[in-house]
């Protein structure tokens, strides 16, 4: 259950990840996502919320601004320091803890756990992912809710493009190469980064298991989570083959 040295999710989450996805990580998008999660979770004022794989705190901060007692958990101490600085800037309180998501160090504490932007499926095997869900259940109080936002595998297969690129605000070119292994249901994405002066280097990128709704529903049930809603996006659209996201809310049984 130990984090592997050299694992992509150890090496990739630094400046590269933040820079590559800076055009996505807007305050407006975070606000929309938090607003939808808040509605679906039906949180009481002052509820305790765990932001699992919180990164730099882009969801933790707006949740705290809504008056919730937020704990941000991430494997990266550097990202947690960014979250702490953001909390200070916005004059809110967010507790931070560096930990592996398979080992959430709380029991029956949280009214809700959120897991955003396809950060489920990072690990090496389905058994690792089941350990994450087991840890989520342990951290939730009975009746507590789990909100998980994933890339829709059906959409990813139907809209598969092997090569893509975009340019960052400073003129840096990010060239993206995707490899979709249908047998393992994993999407491996690597990046070549070309700076404005022409300097070129490779980034390890990410390698994520994409689950079907059937698979993830079975796993949630196996771990004692009762599925209560499935959505295709943060506007509340119904989940379907052609929706880019697969967002699931579930409730811990006893």
- What string, H for helix and E for strand, traces the elements in order? HHHEHEHEEHEHEEEEHEE
* Level-2 CATH architecture of the largest domain: 3-Layer(aba) Sandwich
CATH fold group of the largest domain = Rossmann fold
Ends apart, CA distance between termini:
26 Å
What structural category do the secondary elements indicate?
Answer: alpha/beta
Arithmetic mean of pLDDT: 96
**CATH level 1 class label of the largest domain:** Alpha Beta
Helix amount, in percent?
A: 25-40%
How would you name the CATH homologous superfamily of the largest domain?
Vaccinia Virus protein VP39
Please tell me what the overall shape is.
Answer: globular
Biggest sheet record: 7 strands, mixed
Strand order of the largest sheet: 3-2-1-4-5-11-10
Query: What is the total number of structural domains?
Result: 2
Proportion of beta-strand residues: 25-35%
The radius of gyration over CA amounts to: 18 Å
* Uncertain residue ranges: none
**What's the helix count?**
8
How many extended strands?
11
Structural summary, described in words:
The structure is a single chain. The chain has 254 residues and is of the alpha/beta class. The chain folds into two domains: 187 residues, Rossmann fold (3-Layer(aba) Sandwich), CATH 3.40.50.150; 52 residues. The chain contains eight helices and eleven strands. The strands form two sheets. The chain has a seven-stranded mixed β-sheet, with helices on both faces. Strands 6-7-8-9 form a four-stranded antiparallel β-sheet. Helix 5 links the parallel strand 2 and strand 3.
């Amino acid at each position: 259950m130990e984090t592997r040295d050299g694992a992509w999710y150890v090496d990739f989450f630094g400046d590269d990840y933040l820079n590559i996805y800076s055009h996505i990580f807007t305050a407006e998008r975070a606000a929309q996502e938090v607003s939808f999660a808040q509605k679906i979770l039906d949180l009481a004022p002052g509820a305790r919320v765990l932001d699992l794989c919180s990164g730099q705190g882009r969801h933790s901060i707006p949740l705290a601004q809504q008056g919730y007692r937020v704990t941000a958990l991430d494997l990266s101490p550097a990202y947690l320091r960014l979250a702490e600085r953001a909390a200070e800037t916005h004059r809110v309180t967010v507790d931070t803890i560096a930990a592996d998501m398979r080992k959430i160090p709380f029991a029956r504490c949280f009214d809700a756990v959120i897991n955003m932007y396809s950060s489920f499926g990072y690990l090496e095997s389905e058994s690792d992912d089941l350990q994450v869900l087991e840890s989520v259940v342990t951290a939730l109080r009975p009746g507590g809710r789990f909100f998980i936002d994933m890339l829709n595998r059906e959409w990813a297969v139907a809209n598969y493009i092997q090569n893509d690129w975009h340019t960052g605000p400073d003129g840096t070119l990010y060239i993206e190469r995707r490899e979709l292994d249908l047998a393992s249901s994993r999407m491996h994405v690597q990046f070549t980064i070309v700076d404005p002066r022409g300097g070129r280097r490779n980034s390890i990128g990410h390698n994520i298991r994409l689950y079907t709704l059937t698979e993830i529903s079975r796993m949630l049930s196996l771990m004692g989570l009762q599925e209560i809603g499935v959505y295709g996006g943060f506007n509340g659209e119904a989940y379907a083959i052609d929706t880019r996201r697969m967002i699931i809310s579930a409730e811990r049984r006893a």
